[in-house]
Amino acid sequence: MVRKELPLAITFITGGIVILANFLAPAWFVQTNKDITVWYQIVTALFCGLGVVNLCRIHGKKVSQKREGWPFSVVMLVSMFGFMLIALYVGQQHQLYKNLYNNTIVPLNATMYSILVFYIASAAYRAFRVRSAEATILLVTAAIVMLGKAPIGEAVLGSWVASWTTWIFDVPNTAGMRGIQLGATLGGIAMALRVLIGIERAHFGGTGGE
Amino acid sequence: MANIDRRIIYVIMMLAVIYAFIKPMGLPITVSQHTKTAYNAIDALPAGSILVLGMDFSAGGIPELEPAGKAIFYQCMKNNVRVVFMGMWVMAGDMAERILTEMEPLFPDKKYGVDYINIGYKAGGAPMLEKAVDDIVLAAVGIDHRGNALPGNMAIMQDFKSLKDVSFWVCLSTGTPGTGDWIRIVGDPLKIKGTTDIVSVSIPEQMPYVQSGQLTGIIQGMRGSAEYELLIKRPGRAVAGMDAQSLTHVVILAFILLGNLGYLVRKKS
Prior knowledge:
A: mainly alpha, B: Rossmann fold
């Protein structure tokens, strides 16, 4: 009862308040919705602590049992607590913190993102094949957009590439994207209703659904 | 030709990027109407008004978004428009500090807490933004990124009590939470105009908002940032990156062409 019904009741009541506050706006609901927003912010901040505990459990276990790749877990734990202690001890405006941050986290994070260019190049080479009329249209469109978005396209082929690219973005892309977004929003509303009335229970753990 | 080893593709891509940075071609960049619209809207803000820069990206977005962030801050400081940095992404405060580290020496007469402020990252995502619509101090839990108490005695905070006091918003975004939340929570309900600088892969999903007028123009990835740098007449890293983008696009297209030639030859035989 407590494990399933209580969270369901909390979800229903909280969700109901938020919906009523946004669509009908009676005073009590609006005020309670504002309070819920503050609670949400507090709970979100707590996630961070929960994340630290979780990481310590998983990686601590890995290190203590010397499982495969345990040195990486040591690096992870040392980095996490190292950054935390430095930030707490000297503050985020201290040059030491700034140097560490700008010379480790920033390039590492940027590297993760920028290596995508290699995967995209390789994937484009393998995927863009003139197998059918639809695939050919996709390929030609991609080629125009790629040339239109880089200055070299306009410099070599003339201004029509940029104009065509703008048209592709503004007309067919916008029309298609609007349809996708409307569909996704309707799906989101349906899913939210399923969660609110307790049909969808995947967030309790397990497989979800009735 | 239809099955080139991917390591060869990686090496050629790498060489193309390196070559572009060693030997810049300086290709001309045309400014798009979308970027011009965003630039004009910010340029029309009266002196003393407040612009919020939503730093909703992490370090991965730096090459595409940071140049526009710097350019917008530069434009605002030139026009005496006050700037508030805040964000729903964990790195928001640090991303703003990177911009300020480079920009502060250019404007020695502008003061932190008077002409600009870095509220930094605040937990809560979109609900945090909702809270900021009512009360920025509460949403920011009473402290800015530099550890100053809010509102404290900072002049900018006397006029910036909530997002309702903002004249224009710009969301520098790599995903969610991001531009959609700014439109839903700030742009539409408060009728405050705003725009976004978004990474190239996310441009298509923002275009309906541009057409509907919910976004005042759009700064499209690194290309948009480069255009913005040109508009403020201060070419920087985004303009420099355009040559690399040109060459890599050409390399990708060359590989697509090769792949298809190989595919057609194989199909024929």
